[in-house]
Amino acid sequence: MVKKFLQGLNRRKVKVFFIFLLCSFLAWFLSNLSESYESRVNFDLNYRNLPDTLLLGNNAVNTMEAKLRTSGFQFLYYKFWNKRVNVNLGDVQYRNGRYMLSEDALKKQIEQQLSQNISLLDLDRRQLTVDLYQVNSKEVPVVAQLDVQFAQNFILDGAPVIKPATVTVKGPKKEIDTIRHIFTSKLEMAQVSSDFSEEVLLIFPRNLVNSIFSTNRVEVSGAVVKFSEEVFEVPVKVVNLPEGYQIQTFPNSVSVLCKATVERLKSLSAADIKVIADYRQLRNSDSNELFLEILETPEKVYDLRLLVNKVNFVLEQQ
Hints:
By secondary structure, this protein is of the alpha+beta class. The protein has helices at residues 2-33, 72-80, 103-111, 173-176, 262-266; strands spanning 36-48, 54-56, 63-71, 83-88, 93-95, 98-102, 119-123, 127-130, 132-134, 136-143, 146-150, 154-156, 161-163, 166-171, 182-184, 187-192, 196-203, 212-213, 217-222, 224-226, 228-239, 245-250, 253-260, 274-278, 289-296, 303-306, 310-317.
């Protein structure tokens, strides 16, 4: 009984000893952290206020080492988290073909962002060279890549609408001068029978390493209508006949297939379509055939196609 009591007492003494030891260590640790130290820390650089005529290159410096004097608490914070500082590029100067910030300007900017109990003693460089370059800009048209399969008797009414229709590209002149247009990613749809509107990404050329675009996506939309077909018998007119001759074609009229809405087809007639054959296409050959072409296409017609593309003829002198 007495032995068990003594063992329990010894355990409590050990626990109390370790508690006092831990408290002593914490008091010593906190006392040391409250003292001032000098040490080096890394800052992540965040460039801001970029002039409109300049762009930041891919080789820009992202970190900087600085020597600070502050309490151990502050250094403990910097050891676990890299401090981010803003670099105002409005103070940048152009010297000897390079853009740079002087040491004094850089120190002033950093000191304004540090707490009052932190002293900036030194930087790891006398000046900061910033990878900047003169920027040009131009508007580039967007070209939609569509793979749209329409349901039977449905068709796109006019060209697809792209918003925005152009994008602004900014970059070195030698880069952006090579750009003529920007394609969208392919928009694939099947059995389309109603209007559509889709947001699609733009495809940027890989060689534009220092250029930026005003947006990376556009909206592509289209109006879809139901159409019908009607065949019109259109007379053939021969042009550029030699003087003093007349011509007779066989047949003297041909079938033309027209695709449009039902309402539009009701308002059309053969007189709205012009089919011609140019006699000069023969070029003194002995052929007795003339190829046909549609000279005039009525408005709001989706397709106009000759069902016969040539005719025979007889040329007679008047």
